[in-house]
User: Which sequence fits this backbone?
């Protein structure tokens, strides 16, 4: 409450100190783009657990698009998201990509619920509403409904029924399971104690996760509910499979919605479900590697490429290595993306005793999220702590020479490490030189830029003088000093780890007159110990012999 100062004396006032934020939320915001069985099209949706993904986007079922009669398509997106959560991921944003070709947008399953009230003279008109699947796809053809009368209010021409709707879904065994029940409904909601059907079922928070009510006529009376076996929705159709440009467009749509640092994985698919076993190759795998330069207005997007193709049947490790190098030559020089190989083997989540080979992107992002939360973004997401929790093997084992060639080509290899499991053993971006050719260095720079951007928002429209410059220097100090103390910057002291400049040398009168305030921040980024070399010397009465033990 404001105080009016009228008499001489001491006045005590209480105010809250607003401290500028020096941290961000959980850094790794994982974003996946790909094909799903169901779910909103080109509309990013956040999931915090695997069960959230299943309820919105479906599971591991193959997809039957209209442009591919036989065989069906198997999307790797569900497997990538599943592996992300299994390896330590916490939050992910999903966007469902579809073909942009005319006539391939797909269609939701739907059915008209018709009926009439037969009592009264003259009979009231026919009333109807449509039940439509929540999203496009053939999955909606497995959804059924059943109506049941709970009570009849009034008589004659004014008789109205209060009814309930049960939603069923046909499971893999062909059994109809009740998944939702909505009771106490009427079409108009005018009956005391009832709920309006379309408002109740369409409620975004507590409504149906399977259907929507469309075409309700509020003037006409509700349909006379029928009883009997559940009635299936029909004519649902999967959209066409997206190509690389469709995937890129979907990613662009996602990035216009998600703010802050992002790790992005563009997940492919293949169109031959007969070749999902590890003994056979997915020769029709759709590569969706897109360099981060595709989003020129974002400098906080780090792309995990799934561009490495799967290994072909009977292909040698040397031949596979060459095919990977040929595929990834296009993306050399980009420090905002990284490529990983080979594909990893995980137990099939739905088939006991069977393993499936999947692209490594989702697993790598889960590992990065786990290391971010336990150590820090400055720690390279590689080494024995970077084990893929649910992996049981890799599709290809390379020789030492091949491993060296791949690493020299900035391709990060996933391999088995005795005593640690299946680990990510590479930490390079696609850039070939400079400190930011390491993943940890680039992501640390992204982190620092993002925190500085958020922390210095208070300076906008403040008076541009020494007091503001001092405040900016202190804000940057509160960011960089804890980062150095945690080991994110090198140097024995803060003077060696970073510098902050914001004074009259940078902010001349002409700069101030243009409405600008300038600050320079320099940081000494850490280099990961990529090669550990141990020299063993044997001593025998003044004679020395030595051997070099390379890193694991």
Assistant:
């Amino acid at each position: 409450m404001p105080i009016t100062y009228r008499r001489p004396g001491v006045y005590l006032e209480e105010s809250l100190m607003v401290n500028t934020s020096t941290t961000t939320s959980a850094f790794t915001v994982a974003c996946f783009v790909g094909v799903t069985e169901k779910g909103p099209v080109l509309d990013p949706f956040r999931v915090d657990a695997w069960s959230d993904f299943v309820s919105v986007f479906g599971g591991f079922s193959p997809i039957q698009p209209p442009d591919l009669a036989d065989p069906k398509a198997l999307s790797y997106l569900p497997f990538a998201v599943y592996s992300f959560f299994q390896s330590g991921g916490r939050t992910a944003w999903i966007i469902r990509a579809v073909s942009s070709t005319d006539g391939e947008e797909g269609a939701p399953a739907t059915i008209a619920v018709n009926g009439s009230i037969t009592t009264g003279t003259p009979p009231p008109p026919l009333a109807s509403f449509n039940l439509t699947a929540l999203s496009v796809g053939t999955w909606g053809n497995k959804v059924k409904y059943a109506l049941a009368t709970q009570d009849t209010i009034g008589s004659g021409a004014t008789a109205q029924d209060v009814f309930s709707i049960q939603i069923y879904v046909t499971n893999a065994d062909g059994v109809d399971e009740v998944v939702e029940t909505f009771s106490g409904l009427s079409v108009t909601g005018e009956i005391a104690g009832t709920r309006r059907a379309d408002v109740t079922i369409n409620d975004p928070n507590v409504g149906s996760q399977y259907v929507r009510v469309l075409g309700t006529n509020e003037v006409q009376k509700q349909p006379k509910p029928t009883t009997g076996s559940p009635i299936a929705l029909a004519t649902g159709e999967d959209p066409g499979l997206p190509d690389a440009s469709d995937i890129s467009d979907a990613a662009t749509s996602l990035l216009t919605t998600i703010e802050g640092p992002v790790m992005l994985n563009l997940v492919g698919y293949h169109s031959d479900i007969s070749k999902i076993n590890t003994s056979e190759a997915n020769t029709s795998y759709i590569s969706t590697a897109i360099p981060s330069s595709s989003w020129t207005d974002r400098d906080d997007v780090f792309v995990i490429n799934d561009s490495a193709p799967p290994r072909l049947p009977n292909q040698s490790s040397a031949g596979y290595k060459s095919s990977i190098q040929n595929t990834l030559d296009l993306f050399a020089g980009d420090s905002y993306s990284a490529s990983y190989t080979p594909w990893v083997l995980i137990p099939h989540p739905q088939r006991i005793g069977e393993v499936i080979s999947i692209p490594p992107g989702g697993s790598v992002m889960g590992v990065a999220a786990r290391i971010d939360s336990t150590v820090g973004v400055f720690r390279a997401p590689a080494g024995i702590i970077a084990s893929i929790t649910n992996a049981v093997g890799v599709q290809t084992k390379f020789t030492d020479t091949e491993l060296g060639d791949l690493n020299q080509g900035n391709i990060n290899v996933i391999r088995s490490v005795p005593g640690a499991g299946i680990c990510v053993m590479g930490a390079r971006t696609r850039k070939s030189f400079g400190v930011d050719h390491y993943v940890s260095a680039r992501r640390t720079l992204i982190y620092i830029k993002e925190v500085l951007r958020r922390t210095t928002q208070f300076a906008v429209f403040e008076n541009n003088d020494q007091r503001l410059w001092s405040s900016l220097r202190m804000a940057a100090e509160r960011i960089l000093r804890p980062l150095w103390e945690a080991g994110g910057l090198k140097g024995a002291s803060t003077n060696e780890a970073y510098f902050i400049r914001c004074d009259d040398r940078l902010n001349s009168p002409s700069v101030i007159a243009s409405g600008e305030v300038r600050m320079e921040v320099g940081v000494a980024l850490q280099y990961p110990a990529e090669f550990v070399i141990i020299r063993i010397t044997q001593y025998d009465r003044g004679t020395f012999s030595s051997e070099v033990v390379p890193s694991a």
